[in-house]
């Protein structure tokens, strides 16, 4: 069984073709600048040369057609015909309250995703475009939706409700949803395997630290709390997102700076975070380089970032009444030795003792704490595509 995994953004399309008998990646790539001049596809089939196809892609349907053509190409393809594709798994950012697990896509599901687009206007519309385009080109191939929000639907009301008038939750479904659920679920499962224990016996904190970042408290295999909220803006300080702030700041800034709601949304989502504090970049490599040159604002940006992550770890350990392991994943969590070290400093009271030699590693599954640490710290590279493929296989 071969599953094609698609992750559609507003102007991009990431994909992987996975053989589910072995879970080996047969091909992967990305279509960029969809609907924009200069569009192209980077494609690589396992064991073959990478290729770049410069071709106009006016929409997602055109992009998917080029991707499929790449997959069956006699020179750089991975399969002999499209008939080998058994199913397509689509990453969908927001499933609202209606989807607590992955589903086979039908018209009713698509209608619900349209409704959820108001909650995720930057993500759900392109996700839907990819689904519709795929259905046109592969009409007889089953489609599965795998939701970023689904894993967090196990949160109790005490975790997902905001202290607003309850009727606003009933009327508008204003609540904490959480995101990166596919990643949190995958690394939690891998951590249990690495520890040689059942996931149902563990209290875990998973830290998905990339340009967008979130933390989840996972008790007995279920998400009980997470840092992102109604939107991906809440929680940690991120690359360009402010994370938690006093909500009164929003109205204050609108009055003082004469900002529209759109202006404010842009400021908090695209001009804040470590970029806003440092004035240097949203890329942590650039910020770390600036710190080495004595840039005080860059150093402060990192301190704010580390402290926010540490604060959530402490809060979730208290919420769960204990902790067995902390897992770092995503771009920064997997590759920044300094981030893991800085976040874990001062957490010795939780039984965490970082081994500096073990921690000096990037992008590799490993335990980075000393042997006598009662709480383990793990590095687990995330694999959302494989998780989506597994969910798709299970349903099909």
| E-strand count | 14
3D shape: globular
Radius of gyration in whole Å, from Cα? 21 Å
| Poorly predicted spans | none
Tally of helical segments: 15
CATH superfamily of the largest domain: ATPase, nucleotide binding domain
| CATH fold descriptor of the largest domain | Nucleotidyltransferase, domain 5
**Range of helix content:** 25-40%
Which secondary-structure class do the elements indicate?
alpha/beta
Helix/strand order: EEEEEHEEHHEHHHEEEHHHHHEHHHEEH
Largest sheet: 8 strands, mixed
User: Residue-averaged pLDDT, rounded?
Assistant: 93
Strand order of the largest sheet: 5-4-3-2-1-6-8-7
Structure characteristics:
alpha/beta; 396 residues; 20% strand; 14 strands; eight-stranded mixed beta sheet; six-stranded mixed beta sheet; 15 helices; Nucleotidyltransferase, domain 5
How would you sum up this structure, described in words?
By secondary structure, the protein is an alpha/beta fold. It folds into 2 domains: 2-147, 2-Layer Sandwich (Nucleotidyltransferase, domain 5); 197-379, ATPase, nucleotide binding domain (Nucleotidyltransferase, domain 5, 2-Layer Sandwich), CATH 3.30.420.40. Helix content is 38%, strand content 20%. The chain is built from 15 helices and 14 strands. The protein has helices at residues 60-72, 107-116, 124-137, 157-160, 166-172, 181-195, 248-256, 261-270, 273-278, 284-292, 296-320, 330-335, 337-344, 356-359, 384-395; strands at 2-8, 12-19, 24-32, 40-45, 51-54, 85-92, 103-104, 143-147, 203-209, 213-219, 222-226, 325-329, 366-367, 376-379. The strands form 2 sheets. It has an 8-stranded mixed sheet, with helices on both faces. The model has no long low-confidence stretch (mean pLDDT 93). One of its GO terms (molecular function) is magnesium ion binding. It is found in: Cytoplasm. The record marks 180, 241 as: Transition state stabilizer. ATP binds at residues 14, 208-212, 283-285, 331-335.
């Amino acid at each position: 069984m071969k599953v094609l995994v698609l992750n559609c953004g507003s102007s991009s399309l990431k994909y992987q073709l996975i053989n589910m008998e072995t879970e080996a990646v047969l091909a992967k790539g990305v279509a960029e600048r969809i609907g924009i001049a200069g569009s192209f596809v980077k494609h690589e089939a396992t064991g073959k040369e990478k290729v770049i196809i410069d071709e106009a892609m006016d929409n997602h349907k055109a992009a998917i057609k080029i991707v499929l053509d790449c997959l069956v190409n006699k020179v750089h393809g991975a399969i002999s015909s499209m008939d080998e594709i058994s199913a397509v798994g689509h990453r969908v950012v927001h499933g609202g309250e209606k989807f607590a697990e992955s589903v086979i896509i039908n018209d009713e599901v698509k209608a619900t995703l349209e409704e959820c687009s108001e909650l995720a206007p930057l993500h759900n519309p392109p996700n839907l475009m990819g689904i519709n385009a795929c259905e046109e080109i592969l009409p007889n191939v089953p489609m599965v939706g795998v939701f970023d929000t689904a894993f967090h639907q196990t949160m109790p009301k005490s975790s997902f409700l905001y202290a607003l008038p309850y009727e606003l939750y009933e009327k508008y479904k204003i609540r904490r949803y959480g995101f990166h659920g596919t990643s949190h679920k995958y690394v939690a499962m891998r951590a249990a395997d690495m520890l040689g224990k059942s996931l149902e016996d563990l209290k875990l904190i998973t830290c998905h630290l990339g340009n967008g970042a979130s933390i989840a408290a996972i008790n007995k295999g279920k998400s009980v709390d997470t840092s992102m909220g109604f939107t991906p803006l809440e929680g940690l300080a991120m690359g360009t997102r402010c994370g938690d702030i006093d909500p009164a700041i929003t109205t204050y800034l609108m009055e003082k700076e004469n900002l529209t709601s759109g202006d404010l949304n842009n400021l908090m989502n695209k001009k804040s975070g470590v970029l806003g504090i440092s004035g240097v970049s949203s890329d942590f490599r650039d910020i770390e380089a600036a710190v080495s040159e004595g840039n005080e604002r860059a150093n402060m940006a990192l301190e704010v970032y580390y402290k926010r992550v540490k604060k959530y770890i402490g809060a979730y350990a208290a919420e769960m009444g204990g902790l067995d392991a902390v897992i770092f994943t995503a771009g920064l969590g997997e590759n920044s030795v300094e981030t893991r070290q800085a976040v874990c400093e001062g957490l010795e009271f939780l039984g965490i003792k970082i081994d500096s030699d073990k921690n000096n590693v990037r992008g590799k599954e490993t335990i980075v704490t000393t042997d006598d640490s009662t709480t383990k710290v793990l590095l687990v590279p995330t694999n959302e595509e494989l998780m989506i493929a597994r969910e798709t296989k299970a349903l099909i």
